[in-house]
């Protein structure tokens, strides 16, 4: 009799455990299906038709004469936007503007300013006044000439000022110009793409100031998106890993280091689907590995090791 009571007690204890296990397995299965469907929606189907002149006639791109910025300008012009190009060199701006006019038959305007200075925004606002802007790409940025320890950076005071002005102040001020001057709120539509960097996902030793400014861009963008998403405005933080550009000094593109054109085409398909994106599927995998799978201490250690080697090689070549 006692033995039968023990068996009944065990059966009674097993039943709740069975349902807990079944619920856990079902929850994990549903989560996995959701993630797979979300990934398919983002990386296969995309949202490529969202960005069109229906948002507004004009697209504004800063840092538009090279690399990713130039590719954004080309792709948006191909989609029919009139282009406002902003960068430092008037000669390069004119070359890009002529190319867009010839290839895509779109209207172009240019503003030549040095984003390292803080007294330029009245000129930008005056040039943009009256334009119906649908898309803004805050792409202008500057990095180190080579990896270096913070206190060893040449002309450190000017270096800090220039990097903050170019990488951080420009994003805030140009967003302010767009919000203040243009009918984003009246039309309840508009897209702002703020180009951060994978370096902003965690500290990168020997590129410490750069990675900190890019972390600011990411936080600023995600916070601003939450503030204004109910008005129908999309603000996206874009965090690419290495792309084959002059800034990265990568000459030969690979699967994980794409050309700017390939990267931009992939990134634009994520607009409206992700508020924070690595923009390109191989980069998304790298982002997941380095932020979710590998401890941050190891990522920081490996980044420091890589940059020390690059620093040593650069200094040896200079000798």
Automatic annotation (TrEMBL):
Subcellular location: Endoplasmic reticulum membrane
Pathway: Lipid metabolism; fatty acid biosynthesis; Steroid biosynthesis; estrogen biosynthesis
Catalytic activity: 17beta-estradiol + NADP(+) = estrone + NADPH + H(+); a very-long-chain (3R)-3-hydroxyacyl-CoA + NADP(+) = a very-long-chain 3-oxoacyl-CoA + NADPH + H(+); 17beta-estradiol + NAD(+) = estrone + NADH + H(+)
Keywords: Endoplasmic reticulum, Lipid biosynthesis, Lipid metabolism, Membrane, NADP, Oxidoreductase, Steroid biosynthesis, Transmembrane, Transmembrane helix
EC number: 1.1.1.330, 1.1.1.62
InterPro entries: NAD(P)-bd_dom_sf, Sc_DH/Rdtase_CS, SDR_fam, VLCFA-Steroid_DH
Gene Ontology biological process terms in this record: steroid biosynthetic process
Domain of life: Eukaryota
Recorded GO CC terms: endoplasmic reticulum membrane
Protein function: Catalyzes the second of the four reactions of the long-chain fatty acids elongation cycle. This endoplasmic reticulum-bound enzymatic process, allows the addition of two carbons to the chain of long- and very long-chain fatty acids/VLCFAs per cycle. This enzyme has a 3-ketoacyl-CoA reductase activity, reducing 3-ketoacyl-CoA to 3-hydroxyacyl-CoA, within each cycle of fatty acid elongation. Thereby, it may participate in the production of VLCFAs of different chain lengths that are involved in multiple biological processes as precursors of membrane lipids and lipid mediators.
Annotated protein name in UniProt: 3-ketoacyl-CoA reductase
Species of origin: Takifugu rubripes (Japanese pufferfish)
Gene expressing this chain: hsd17b12a
């Amino acid at each position: 009799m006692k033995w039968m009571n023990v068996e009944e007690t065990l059966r009674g204890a097993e039943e709740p455990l069975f349902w807990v296990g079944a619920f856990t397995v079902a929850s994990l299965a549903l989560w996995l299906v959701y993630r797979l469907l979300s990934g398919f929606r983002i990386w296969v189907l995309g949202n490529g038709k969202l960005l069109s002149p229906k948002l507004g006639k004009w697209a504004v791109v800063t840092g538009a004469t090279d690399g990713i910025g130039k590719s954004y300008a080309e792709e948006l012009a191909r989609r029919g936007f009139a282009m406002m190009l902003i960068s430092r060199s008037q000669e390069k701006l004119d070359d890009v503007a002529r190319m867009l006019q010839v290839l895509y038959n779109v209207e172009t305007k240019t503003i030549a300013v040095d984003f390292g200075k803080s007294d330029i925004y009245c000129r930008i606002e005056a040039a943009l006044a009256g334009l119906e802007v649908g898309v803004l790409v805050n792409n202008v940025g500057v990095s180190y000439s080579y990896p270096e320890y913070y206190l060893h950076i040449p002309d450190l005071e000017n270096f800090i000022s220039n990097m903050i002005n170019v990488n951080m102040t420009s994003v805030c001020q140009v967003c302010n110009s767009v919000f203040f001057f243009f009918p984003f709120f009246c039309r309840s539509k508009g897209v702002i793409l703020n180009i951060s960097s994978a370096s902003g996902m965690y500290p990168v030793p020997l590129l410490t100031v750069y990675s900190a400014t890019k972390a600011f861009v990411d936080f600023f963008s995600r916070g601003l998106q939450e503030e204004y998403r109910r008005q129908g405005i999309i603000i996206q933080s874009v965090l690419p890993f290495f792309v084959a550009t002059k800034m990265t000094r990568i000459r030969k593109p690979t699967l994980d280091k794409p050309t700017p054109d390939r990267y931009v085409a992939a990134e634009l398909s994520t607009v409206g689907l992700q508020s924070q994106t690595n923009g390109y599927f191989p980069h998304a995998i790298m982002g997941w590995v380095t932020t979710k799978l590998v401890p941050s201490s190891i990522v920081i250690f490996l980044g420091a090791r890589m940059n020390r080697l690059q620093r040593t090689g650069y200094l040896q070549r200079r000798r």
